[in-house]
Amino acid sequence: MIAFGNRRGSAFLSLLGLSLMLFIWRSDMVRAADATAAKPGDFQKKLEAALKNKPASCTIVYTGGTLAMNVLENMLKDIYKNDDYLHYSTREYRIATSTDGKRTTVKYTFTYWETQAQSKQVSSKVDEVLGKIITRGMNDYQKEKAVHDWIEINLAYDTSLKEHSAYAGLFDRKKTVCQGYALLAYKMLSRAGLENRIIEGTAGGRLHTWNLVKLEGKWYHLDTTWDDPVPDVAGKAAYDYFNLTDDQIRSTHTWKKSPSYSEATVPFDTTLMLKEKSDPGNAGFYQNLKKALGLHYLEAAHTAGDAVGLTRLIERAVKIRQPSFTIRYTAKSTLAADLKKAASGFSTLSAYSYQYSSFARSPSKTDVLVTITLTFRK
């Protein structure tokens, strides 16, 4: 009996942080055996050892009888669970089996987003970069930010949707899609000593990958793709998707609950406040990071929820003739009317305009960040 199976590795095509997964089914004939195994556990170990070298194909003869296709696929899935980089740099795999009832010949055929030689180049480059951006005495928070910032500044999003690897992001065109961003973040964070996973789900309604990072026992979502502007802005690093909880990132991202994905439940602003007190030697770093993440917008001085509050903030800007300012507004539905009412009380203003965006770190889904621009009379 001969059976064929094929499963596409997680392959993503992304546009503006959004992605599309494709599934392709093929088959192939088995050939001569490369190894033998008498027990399922031994079979899986031999397969895992072979995959470390990213072979184009691997054939193993199982001498313990038959192995069902679902068992073979589950073995491969188990291997991928323990190696996110191998998993997400594998483009496609095919499985073909032949059995006489006493032994089963299994051939795996693989294609990859990057070759083994290219993966080694990625590792070498990552070590070189980490040697420059990670310094002695850095804690995990500082290491994570250094990795995040380097990726944002040095990679660009591939709007042609052709490149999916970390290699493509580091070499050649230096552009890649979400899969490449997540792979590079995974490699850099891991080599810097930070436990992390690649998580797959949807963002903005399309399939997407990003990372989960563990810091002192707490997990956070880190999306380096969505923190990188499109089109690319040289030297620009955003922090909108830096260390979010499950609840915070769910406004734009979704994923299936899995034992592979630890829950992220502790808001990062709470963590930073505690670190600022427990690690005073690095207080300046935590304070600067809070500002970069926009956490100061959670403070009363930068928050309003009605026309009275807006009037107070506009008055403050008028006194110093500040042309624009950004605040957190807690009543999105009445923003336009409240702002019109507040601005009408200032004779020194000839016009005003505003724009707003979501603020994932806010405790309420009705909160938005509002940038108000004022035009003063001459």
From TrEMBL:
Cellular component terms per the entry's GO annotation: cytoplasm
Record domain Transglutaminase-like: where: 170-226
Source taxon at top rank: Bacteria
Pfam families in UniProt: Transglut_core (PF01841)
Alphabetical list of SMART domains matching this protein: TGc
Entry protein name: Peptidase
